[in-house]
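dumping this here so i dont lose it
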């Protein structure tokens, strides 16, 4: 029975240390790829590409420009019909200011969204790096703890057998004899 327990403990030890080595190797391979990428993302988040920002700005400016050109066209049409362009200058100037304001607002919004995206990329990269470290180290440590427990189990299993039992019996008898001798010595006084 003791030999079987020792064999099982040895097998568990070998499996656990093999698993720990596999986790360490897998972690090294994964980290070799992900860690540089995530570190780059952490230190230099990319945000939107210049092409994407240009497209968003063009779309925003196009919609405000389209609305303004509609106002300008309508004002010119009305001036032509009435043969009086007095008063339309103010409306056209206001339309131009509105277009400029809309363009500035759109540009600011795109820049703010880009800054928020960069911050999100930085935070996500940090969280992912932390998760990689915790997963790799945790799995490896768990397997090494299992290996240690298997070693202790093997040691305890090795403490059984006729020799260990005989040594335990001799020790108990010796302890009992010295206890009896102490008691007799105390009674003589």
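and the seq i came up w/
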């Amino acid at each position: 029975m003791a030999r079987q327990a020792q064999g099982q403990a040895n097998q568990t030890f070998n499996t656990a240390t093999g698993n720990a080595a596999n986790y360490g190797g897998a972690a090294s391979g994964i980290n070799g790829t992900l860690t540089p990428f995530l570190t780059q993302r952490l230190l230099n988040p990319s945000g939107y590409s210049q092409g994407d920002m240009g497209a968003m700005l063009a779309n925003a400016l196009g919609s405000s420009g389209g609305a303004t050109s509609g106002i300008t066209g309508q004002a010119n049409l009305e001036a032509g019909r009435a043969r009086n362009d007095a008063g339309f200058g103010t409306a056209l100037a206001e339309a131009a200011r509105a277009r400029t304001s809309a363009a500035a607002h759109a540009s600011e919004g795109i820049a703010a969204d880009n800054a928020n995206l960069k911050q999100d990329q930085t935070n996500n990269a940090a969280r992912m790096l932390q998760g990689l470290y915790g997963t790799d180290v945790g799995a490896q440590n768990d397997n090494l703890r299992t290996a240690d427990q298997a070693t202790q189990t093997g040691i305890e299993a090795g403490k059984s057998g006729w020799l260990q039992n005989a040594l335990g019996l001799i020790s108990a008898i010796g302890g009992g004899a010295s206890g009896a001798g102490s008691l007799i010595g105390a009674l003589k006084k």
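The radius of gyration is 41 Å.
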